[in-house]
Design goal:
With about 90 residues, the chain is an alpha+beta fold. It is about 45% helix and about 20% strand. Helix 3 links the parallel strand 2 and strand 3. The protein is globular and about 30 Å long. It starts with 5 loop residues before the first helix and ends with a strand.
Length: about 90
């Protein structure tokens, strides 16, 4: 279980800022039903190349929960949907 509370969200935002994130959006089950989420889904801008996956690994390690992360750029139909429906964290 990946119960996602405000403390975890705050730490995720802190880590994202350290890695240079300019935008961060939570989507999927961790946003819709945080009490029963099995993973955390994030979309991120501002973290280049492999650094994005280093950030993902850092969050996974600290939260002890599976994490999926996608870049917001380049813009696709998928990322547009995330921007419309997701919860903006940064």
């Amino acid at each position: 279980m990946a119960y996602v509370d405000a403390t975890k969200i705050d730490r995720i935002i802190q880590l994202a800022k350290i890695y240079g994130a300019t935008r961060l959006i939570l989507f999927g089950s961790a946003m819709e039903t945080p009490q029963t989420a099995h993973d955390i889904d994030l979309a991120c801008d501002g973290v280049p190349g492999w650094k994005l996956y280093e950030l993902a690994a850092k969050i996974e390690d600290e939260m002890d929960v599976p994490l999926d992360i996608v870049p917001l750029t380049p813009c696709t139909r998928f990322t547009q949907n995330i921007e419309k429906r997701g919860k903006i964290l940064l």
